């Protein structure tokens, strides 16, 4: 019994004596990616050529950088108010989760996504993509659209941000 303990201890010491301090410190570091910026109760105004396009609010914003993709994650939900050039509201979007891919300028909203325009038309889905460059919203998931006169259900959807076309 003592001989086995001595042999096991000897192997342990030999293995750890051969590793460099860098290897030992790497063993202590986790593979978890941490945000480079974190903000609470954040409000962002998106503009294009000086004109306001959208006002985004989120209770928690985490920005990640340095990997293959730079992205901003809003794990506690998002509220977006899309604006006309005169700053009047065109439509609203809310979701329980969102992620913005910074280089692609695309936002993916997930989990109980609701889009409502000023006319009261409402879209509900589990995932919606906002392409900032084209100012279009789309989904390839199941959607429900409620207007004053209709209830429309189906797979997929594409519209401008005013939710009219």
Short descriptors:
165 residues, mainly beta, six-stranded antiparallel beta barrel, 2 helices, 10 strands, 55% strand
In summary, what is this structure?
The chain is mainly beta and 165 residues long. Helices cover 15% and strands 55% of the residues.
Identify the strand order in the major beta sheet: 2-3-6-7-5-4
Sequence of secondary-structure elements: HHEEEEEEEEEE
Q: End-to-end distance, in Å? A: 80 Å
- Helical amount among residues, as a percent range? 10-25%
Q: Uncertain runs with pLDDT below 50, 5 residues or more? A: 8-13
Whole-number radius of gyration? 25 Å
Shape: globular
What is the tally of helical segments?
Answer: 2
Task: Output mean pLDDT.
Answer: 80
* Biggest β-sheet description: 6 strands, antiparallel, barrel
Structural class: mainly beta
Q: How many strands appear in the DSSP assignment?
A: 10
Which percent band covers the strand fraction? over 45%
How would the blueprint of this fold be written?
Layout: H1 2-17, H2 21-28, E1 37-48, E2 51-64, E3 71-74, E4 78-83, E5 89-95, E6 97-101, E7 106-117, E8 122-131, E9 136-146, E10 151-160
Antiparallel strand pairs: 1-2, 2-3, 2-4, 3-6, 4-5, 5-7, 6-7, 7-8, 8-9, 9-10
């Amino acid at each position: 019994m003592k001989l086995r303990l001595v042999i096991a201890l000897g192997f342990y010491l030999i293995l750890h004596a051969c590793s460099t301090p860098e290897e030992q410190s790497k063993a202590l570091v986790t593979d978890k990616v941490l945000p480079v910026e974190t903000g609470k109760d954040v409000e962002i105004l998106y503009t294009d050529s000086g004109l306001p396009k959208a006002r985004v609010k989120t209770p928690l914003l985490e920005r990640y950088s340095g990997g293959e993709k730079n992205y901003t994650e809003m794990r506690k939900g998002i509220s977006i108010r899309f604006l006309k050039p005169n700053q009047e509201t065109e439509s609203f979007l809310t979701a329980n989760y969102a992620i913005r891919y910074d280089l692609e300028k695309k936002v993916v909203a997930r989990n109980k996504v609701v889009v409502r325009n000023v006319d009261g038309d409402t879209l509900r889905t589990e995932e919606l993509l906002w392409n900032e460059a084209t100012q279009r919203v789309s989904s390839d998931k199941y959607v429900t659209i409620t207007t004053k006169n209709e209830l429309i259900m189906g797979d997929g959807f594409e519209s401008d941000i005013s939710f009219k076309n």
